[in-house]
Amino acid sequence: MAWTKYQLFLAGLMLTTGSLNTLSAKWADMFSAPGCSGTPNHAFSHPFVQAVGMFLGELSCLVVFHILLCHDRRKPEPTMVPGQSFNPLLFLPPALCDMLGTSIMYVALNMTSASSFQMLRGAVIIFTGLLSVAFLGRRLQPSQWIGILFTILGLVVVGLADFMSGHGNDSHKLSEVITGDLLIIMAQIIVAVQMVLEEKFVYKHNVHPLKAVGTEGFFGFFILSLLLIPMFYIHVGSFADNPRQVLEDALDAFCQIGHKPLILLALLGNTVSIAFFNFAGISVTKEISATTRMVLDSLRTVVIWVVSLALGWEVFHGLQILGFIILLLGTALYNGLHTPLMAKLPCCPGGQRAEEEEAPERERLLGGGKAANES
């Protein structure tokens, strides 16, 4: 069945904004500018300020939700289902996980390449699978266990590629690259906890996805904005890459933006892209399928890698291709993307269940939460 123009637009929007989200964050990290009180040029290293911007993008989804709801109610026959009422504090635990995981990943992105950052985020499959077995009582299929093993192998290959390329990398020391990679993997444990919490407490309440994303963005934006105040006074020594060597110097970030406005453009790119990426992802699931959404989410890793190479942000390494292919295979096996192909083979009648399983998966993803909406 051929896609409509609207479906093609949604797929392109998801792929483009998903790629821009990581690329714009990395672009901001690559700037250097003078800070406050005449401090000399230094790198823009403000991961927590960037995380606040990302949560602002998520918060905007709540505004979009209410605009769409008001517009729909003006129709003679409203079609939009707002979902049942719920206690907003239900989203606080996953929002705290989102806040911590996102902040760690932005710290890590400043230490490693954009393509490795995106590839290593595939580790979330491992921890989500294990936690869902332990806390949700889920039984994983054999293909999902094989997918987890392939993911582990892919992570080892990508890590090895970073280790080998780190020796000749002028922008990042080898120790920074390894630390960044480990931080990304550690953050995926927190993201997996977030997904399990969302599935256990949020999905069953049938919350509209835009409202779910926006509510978590609300908590993340205001809590992290308030935390910027104590972070301004917490000295962490050489761990921090800012002149005052504090956990986060928001004033220094604003001074650097004032000296180099292009940094603001990069930050706005991150904020706007995450909002459109969430909208496009939800719409792709609704208009096409959850499987298509997973495939597009994997393809944005290729886009990020190709653009990074074209811009000279990183050097080509063949092991990264091998690592990506293994990770892609692991993702496909874990998410059951191989079953639609098997369904077309006369020798695999069991694959006919794929289409029947697609509808519940679509409903689960559309039912609320943002497990599949991460940046």
Summarize the structure.
This protein is mainly α.
SSE layout:
Layout: H1 5-29, E1 32-33, E2 42-43, H2 47-73, H3 92-109, H4 114-120, H5 124-135, H6 142-166, H7 174-202, H8 209-231, H9 250-259, H10 262-287, H11 290-310, H12 318-335, H13 339-343, H14 353-366
Helix pairs in contact: 1-10, 1-11, 2-3, 2-8, 2-10, 3-7, 3-8, 4-11, 5-7, 6-7, 6-12, 10-11, 11-12
Class per helix and strand makeup: mainly alpha
Number of helices in the DSSP assignment = 14
Distance between the termini: 30 Å
Summarize model confidence as the mean pLDDT: 82
**What's the domain count?**
1
Sheet with most strands: 2 strands, antiparallel
Strand content: under 5%
Low-confidence stretches: 344-373
Count of strand segments: 2
How would you characterize the overall build of this protein?
There is one protein chain. This protein has 375 residues and is mainly α. 69% of the residues lie in helices and 1% in strands. The protein has one domain. Strands 1-2 form a two-stranded antiparallel ribbon. The radius of gyration is 21 Å and the shape is globular. The chain starts with a helix and ends in a 9-residue tail after the last helix. It is found in: Membrane; Mitochondrion.
